[in-house]
């Protein structure tokens, strides 16, 4: 970072996200980003409305601007009150696809930045009516942005394809991975417990049902392993009916817990099974690699991009292949230990410090273009 803008420019993060969720990956992303950038740029501020969001506490108090009103005009006034002198380097980074009037930010000298995490609603178009407004706001944010950050090259390519966004307008910054204070340690496959771990939400594109079908097909898997579904809420009535119909009542369970509990689950599981049809990034495989858990995963979406050669892959559409791949991998201790070693190396790439540095570089590049234009004029 050589340009003064990353340290002296005024960066404002929007209020859109914080009252929408109490926890979640997007909240973690922004809180980690704001916390770290504020340490190197005292002019970093986050608009904070009334909320119950767990991750807001990660943001330094001197970076918070509490706001009762979240209308764009009100936020601009608050921003201007927190700007000393009149710098030309101004960034507004919206935290979600809210009903923001992006042109008003441009009119007072701000460059608009938006982070796009995935194109799930666009690629899986059988969306519910309640998602229509969200999709419209997302499209508006994308088309109004001066620059777009994507969390994987997969998301970047999808964005270019679906919205016809030029490549010069997009940068990729990978996510970080951190689960509480549980230390990483080398764990040999032979020391693992006899359960397979599934993490997160389960409906639709997450493809949990195909995992159940694949598991039920293998007598060896049923006789030697359980499936532990961590998080994602209790099994629904439909899920329970499917589990019963497949004779898996005693071998498939759902649990919830803290980040520390999840980290311990990764360390003890025989493997993480990640059958998703599509991910914009996919944190569970990175978390698993970080805590010494072998990854057996779908070969779709960003998963091969993120995991590289550290995972064992299957076609998530092919139930028989899922079953055979899992059974075969779990029988090959040498292969799993090799993947564990590779996973530790791969996981090191995904840390919040890198995310912060790469994001600052995005801001610098965007502002330097602005400066070049002013010089030209």
Largest sheet: 7 strands, parallel
Q: How many angstroms does the end-to-end distance come to?
A: 25 Å
| Spatial strand arrangement across the major sheet | 3-2-1-4-5-6-7
Rg from Cα: 22 Å
Helical residue percent band: 40-55%
Domains (count): 2
**Number of helical stretches of at least 4 residues:** 16
Describe the structure.
By secondary structure, the protein is an alpha/beta fold. It is built from 16 helices and 13 strands. It has helices at 5-8, 25-40, 72-81, 102-107, 120-123, 130-144, 153-163, 208-217, 219-224, 237-245, 259-268, 283-290, 303-307, 319-330, 333-347, 352-376; strands at 10-13, 44-48, 64-66, 90-94, 110-116, 147-150, 170-172, 195-199, 226-230, 252-255, 271-274, 295-298, 312-314. Strands 3-2-1-4-5-6-7 form a 7-stranded parallel beta sheet, with helices on both faces. A 6-stranded parallel beta sheet has the order 10-9-8-11-12-13, with helices on both faces. The chain is elongated and about 70 Å long.
Briefly say what this structure is.
The chain is an alpha/beta fold and 377 residues long. The chain is built from 16 helices and 13 strands. The chain has two domains: 5-176 and 351-376, Rossmann fold; 189-347, Glycogen Phosphorylase B (Rossmann fold, 3-Layer(aba) Sandwich), CATH 3.40.50.
């Amino acid at each position: 970072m050589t340009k003064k803008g990353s340290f002296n420019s005024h960066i404002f993060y929007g209020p859109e996200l914080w009252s929408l969720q109490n926890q979640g990956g997007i909240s973690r992303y922004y809180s980690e980003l704001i916390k770290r950038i504020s340490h190197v740029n005292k002019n970093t501020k986050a608009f904070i409305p009334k909320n119950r969001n767990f991750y807001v506490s990660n943001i330094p108090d001197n970076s918070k601007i509490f706001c009762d009103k979240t209308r764009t005009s009100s936020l601009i006034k608050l921003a201007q009150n927190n700007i000393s002198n009149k710098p030309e380097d101004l960034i507004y980074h919206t935290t979600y696809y809210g009903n923001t009037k992006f042109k008003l930010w441009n009119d007072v000298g701000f460059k608009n930045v938006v982070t796009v995490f995935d194109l799930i609603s666009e690629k899986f178009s059988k969306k519910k009516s309640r998602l229509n407004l969200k999709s419209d706001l997302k499209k508006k944010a994308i088309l109004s942005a001066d620059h777009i950050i994507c969390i994987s090259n997969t998301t970047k390519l999808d964005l270019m394809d679906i919205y016809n966004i030029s490549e010069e307008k997009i940068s990729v910054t990978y996510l970080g991975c951190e689960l509480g204070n549980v230390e990483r340690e080398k764990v040999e496959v032979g020391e693992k417990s006899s359960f397979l771990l599934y993490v997160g939400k389960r409906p639709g594109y997450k493809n949990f049902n195909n995992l159940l079908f694949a598991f039920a097909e293998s007598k060896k898997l049923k006789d030697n392993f359980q499936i532990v579904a961590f998080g994602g809420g209790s099994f629904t009535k439909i899920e329970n009916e499917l589990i019963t119909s497949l004779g898996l009542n005693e071998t498939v369970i759902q649990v919830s817990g803290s980040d520390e509990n999840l980290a311990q689950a990764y360390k003890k599981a025989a493997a993480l099974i990640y059958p998703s049809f599509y991910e914009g990034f996919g944190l569970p495989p990175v978390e698993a690699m970080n805590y010494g858990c072998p990854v057996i995963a779908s070969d779709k979406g960003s998963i091969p991009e993120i995991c590289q050669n550290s995972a064992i892959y299957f076609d998530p559409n092919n139930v028989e292949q899922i079953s055979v791949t899992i059974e075969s991998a779990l029988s090959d201790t040498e292969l799993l230990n090799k993947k564990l070693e590779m996973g530790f190396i791969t996981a090191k790439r995904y840390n919040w410090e890198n995310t912060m540095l790469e994001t600052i570089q995005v801001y610098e590049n965007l502002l330097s273009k602005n400066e070049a234009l002013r010089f030209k004029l």
